[in-house]
Design brief:
elongated, alpha/beta, single chain, three-stranded parallel β-sheet, 5 helices
């Protein structure tokens, strides 16, 4: 951070999760860690106020990462079904509030992170930017 504050420009971005705001009953431990990330992010943003360094969190929704892909494939094989049916069941039962109704892609998440890292996002600071596919049932 000393280098960023000396240059009067920098970006710190925590990759968090919608689970920070809407803690899932089946993953309370995970939600707690993601909530802590958002709190640290906000605290750092306040500590760096006026320096030109922004600190934000991106609240990512269910994403088709490599690990999730493997999990879904294994589950489909165990259940004798397709990956598409496992995904449909997940969003119907486990994340029914999703407006996207599918896993986000890493590229879609990356595009949001790239924007938050850009100079175009210089006024976004201390924020929890939602890239959750509409999972969190809130307009704020």
């Amino acid at each position: 951070m000393p280098g960023m504050t000396a240059r009067k420009w920098g970006r710190v971005i925590f990759i968090s999760s919608e689970s920070a705001q809407q803690i899932p009953a089946e993953m309370i431990h995970y939600g707690m860690t993601k909530t802590a990330q958002v709190a640290i992010s906000r605290g750092l943003a306040e500590a760096l106020a006026g320096t030109g360094v922004t600190v934000n969190s991106v609240l990512v929704g269910p994403t088709a990462s490599e690990g999730v892909g493997t999990f879904v494939e294994d589950l489909a094989r165990q259940q004798g079904t397709t990956k598409e049916e496992v995904e449909q069941h997940f969003f119907a039962g486990t994340r029914p509030t999703s407006l996207l109704k599918r896993f986000e892609t890493p590229g879609e998440v990356g595009a949001v992170v790239a924007f938050v890292a850009s100079d175009h996002a210089r006024v976004i600071n201390g924020a929890a930017v939602r890239a959750d596919g509409g999972v969190v049932r809130s307009i704020f």
